[in-house]
Design brief:
Strands 3, 6, 12, 13 and 14 form a five-stranded mixed β-sheet that branches. Strands 10-7-11 form a three-stranded antiparallel β-sheet. It has helices at residues 5-11, 47-50, 75-91, 109-114, 129-135, 142-147, 156-159, 184-189, 201-211, 228-240, 259-273, 286-294, 306-314, 354-364, 371-386, 404-414, 424-429, 440-456, 462-476; strands at 63-68, 95-100, 121-125, 163-164, 167-168, 171-177, 179-182, 246-248, 252-254, 300-303, 324-326, 337-348, 396-397, 430-434. Helix content is 39%, strand content 13%. The longest helix is centred in the N-terminal third of the chain and has 17 residues, at 75-91. A hairpin with a 3-residue loop joins strand 8 (246-248) and strand 9. The two termini are 21 Å apart. By secondary structure, it is of the alpha+beta class. It contains 19 helices and 14 strands. InterPro entries: Bact_solute-bd_prot1, SBP. It comes from Cohnella yongneupensis.
Length: 483
């Protein structure tokens, strides 16, 4: 991700919270935002106001589309989707909507497309835009996008992840910039002064070391150590040290086995073997690490902030004053607070007919930018207040917070004391950086193996580990890419 601190403060003016390995704040599971689905408005005011202008009366045609449908464990999200389907069918009674609970998987998408089994409208994450477009597995929706009268109110930073060579291949839902969520109450209870927001790696290391109580099963920090999310977590430090995942110049070349990569890996080595500040069982995925934070078993967790904040406040019994959202620490004083940029998107199946693609687009944006949606958001926050729960916005909304609609949403947020508010000081520090253009998940997996080696064995040759991982990624993936 490029340096966009000034852009972030405008685009995210009050929305820091949130997908990387296979879900939404997991950016690919590593960053699943876990933002409540009801952040999306609930109903369009009129069909014309919230969908692309049709070239003919699509309501007179029988059309069937299949849509991404939340998995069975997401009961509330399913209720919201069922409500949306019912409202959509009131406007488009000619459309049959088939529910698909298939979750996007980069290892399965080719098979799904080849067998013509992928849904008409499916979910994916920010790393996949270029991959899907180049494989021909995402429809070019440029005409539908350009005909949509609210397109200029989308969050430009988020939308840009699926705009390639001026063509549009995806519809943003929500996004995040990775940060560190800190249990400041735990620190204060131990007599530790929380670091400033303008903190460094040394501050993180010293704070984690001081907060650790191995005898009580409490770690100072819980870096993710299994699944692709382990590589995703570490990549923030690679970026902060000035490193790159890959270079693209006529060919794709692994670049993470650099001096910056070595510096970032050495920091992980220090967290484990110098500070002894990570969990004894370090093989934690996204849910494990965030769960440990919510349960008070670790003082810090690295993720899209909305997930840990949501679990800490709504499941862990914390109060807003018990925790703080920090930017990622700078490698040294005066450095950038760089975090991985990720998010969730909807993609239309290119094998679908033009009518199906048009209906799929209209379904995707049906609840966007609507006054009825604002009423739904208001009701959602009120309901949470009645349950003594907090509403946690995503790090980056699908809309630009500076837009007309964004300001309406902010006005709703400002009405309630149970909406978690992020400090502008932190927003102003954020330096968001997108992930690699090619084979991001494969790179994450390779680095996860390296991280597990470092955490499990003292004295590992860090440079040799990085070089071996880079050679593997290069030969197995990058060398086959034709530019």
């Amino acid at each position: 991700m490029r340096k966009i601190t000034s852009v972030i403060s405008v685009l995210m003016a009050s929305s820091l919270v949130l997908a990387a390995c296979g879900s939404n704040n997991n950016n690919n599971n590593a960053a699943s935002s876990n933002a409540p689905a009801a952040t999306t408005p609930a109903a369009s005011d009129t069909p014309a106001a919230s969908s692309a202008a049709p070239s003919e009366d699509i309501t007179q045609k029988k059309v069937t589309i299949s849509i991404y449908y939340p998995t069975p464990d997401r009961v509330e999200d399913r209720k919201l989707e069922d409500d949306k389907i019912a409202r959509f069918n009131q406007v488009y009674p000619n459309v049959e909507i088939v529910k698909s609970d298939w979750q996007y998987n980069p290892q399965e998408i080719g098979i799904k497309m080849g067998a013509n089994e992928a849904p008409t409208l499916f979910n994916t994450y920010a790393t996949e835009g270029k991959f899907l477009a180049e494989k021909g597995w995402a429809a070019d929706i440029t005409d539908l996008w350009n005909a949509y009268d609210k397109k200029d109110q989308f969050n430009k930073l988020l939308a840009s992840q699926f705009i390639l060579n001026d063509k549009v291949f995806g519809i943003p839902q929500r996004g995040y910039v990775v940060g560190t969520v800190v249990n400041t109450k735990m620190l204060k209870d131990k007599g530790i002064t929380p670091p400033s927001f303008d903190w460094t790696w040394d501050d993180m290391l010293n704070t984690a070391k001081a907060a650790t109580d191995a005898g009580a099963g409490i770690s100072g920090i819980a870096p993710m150590g299994k699944g692709n999310e382990a590589g995703w977590n570490w990549t923030n430090f690679l970026f902060e040290a000035g490193g790159e995942i890959q270079t693209v110049d006529g060919k794709v070349t692994a670049a993470f086995n650099s001096e910056a990569g070595l510096k970032a890996l050495d920091f992980y080595n220090k967290l484990k073997w110098e500070a002894n500040a990570i969990p004894q069982d370090f093989a934690l995925g996204w849910g494990d690490a965030v769960g440990a934070f919510a349960q008070g078993r670790t003082a810090m967790v690295i993720a899209g902030p909305d997930g840990p904040v949501d679990q800490g406040l709504n499941q862990g019994g914390m109060q807003p004053g018990d925790l703080e959202v920090y930017p990622m620490p700078a490698a040294q004083a005066g450095g950038k607070h760089t975090g991985v940029l990720g998010g969730d998107f909807l993609v239309i199946n290119p094998n679908a007919s033009k009518d199906e693609q048009q209906i799929a687009f209209q379904y995707a944006v049906f609840d966007y930018f609507s006054d009825k949606g604002l009423a739904s958001l208001d009701a959602n926050i009120q309901a949470r207040k009645g349950e003594n729960k907090f509403y946690i916005p995503p790090v980056i909304e699908y809309f630009d917070m500076a837009s007309e609609y964004g300001q309406k949403v902010k006005a709703v947020y400002d009405k309630y004391d149970n909406v978690y508010q992020y400090k502008q000081e932190v927003l102003d520090m954020l330096d968001a950086r997108p992930e690699a253009q090619y084979n991001t998940q494969d790179y994450y997996a390779a680095m996860t193996n390296v991280i597990q080696e470092v955490f499990s064995k003292k004295g590992v040759d860090l440079k040799a580990q990085l070089d071996a991982a880079a050679a593997t990624v290069q030969s197995k993936f990058y060398d086959s890419i034709k530019l």
